[in-house]
Give the backbone structure.
Amino acid sequence: MLLLMTVGVFAGYGYLSYTEGKIDRIAASDLTSLVVAPLEEGESINFLIVGVDDRSTVPEDWVDAFGDFSGRRTDVMMIAHISDAGIQMLSIPRDWKSSIPGHGTNRINAAYVFGGPDLLVQTIQLETGIPIHHYVEIDFAGVGAVVDSLGGVDLDFTYPGRDGKSKFNTEAGRHTLNGEQALAYARSRHYEVYRDGSWQPTSGGDISRTGRQQQILIALFSQVTSPSSAFNLPRFLPTFADRITADEGLSLGLMAGLVQKVLTLDSRAIDAATLPVMNQTGEDGRAYVVPVDGTSTMIDAFLAGQPLKP
């Protein structure tokens, strides 16, 4: 029995080490803007989760709904706050009017184009005052692969929905979305619902889209922590590791501790919100979004670990 337990421990550690080795790392010297994570027991940690729009990695057999744009740009920016009390997710609109160090005024997602992850982290910290301890990046194809590795994600739809541009289409009810469908839903900017006998556009644009992105992440979390997904974890873990880019400080020990913590949490208790903003046309003619009265209040609540919505 002792021998079997010893073999099991080393086999498990070897599997985790193998999994960690698949992560594409960003050298610490290239991410100097990160704040050193707290080491005390019970301290909270903030992750900047970045979804990158990179059409070159999209599988050839997916529906042609992505266009042929070249290069890489940030499509999703979300700060995840993990503590003993739970998980909070705060989305940052990509058109946030920001002062980017060395590059003047621009949309906040332009920081990634100008200076990669480090300048993006620096700009977000300057604009929000929220310390970023770790950085995780994933592209379109990566999201689809992760969803498929878990056998899909389950979402409830009150009405039939569609988006002609992202090619998303669903009937009302509870449905399991595969990776391609989940991404089409998360990317939807022209979402319509069939209600009262006609197709009706939903309001919100990019802000509503961040809500759909949070839905997908929460559904993924629920799927990972569900007992029914236990047999999918050996496929999910290496797929997830292989598809993300992360800072060097996101160690095997830290990840194991976070997994142990989040497995005790209920996905229904995840507190998710998008920073409230309003539209504005800048002096340069660009369309921006800018803070409103409730923006600083929500940031203060996030920093204090308090509910993001009244």
In short: The chain has one domain: 2-304. The chain has eight helices and 17 strands. The chain has a mean pLDDT of 84.
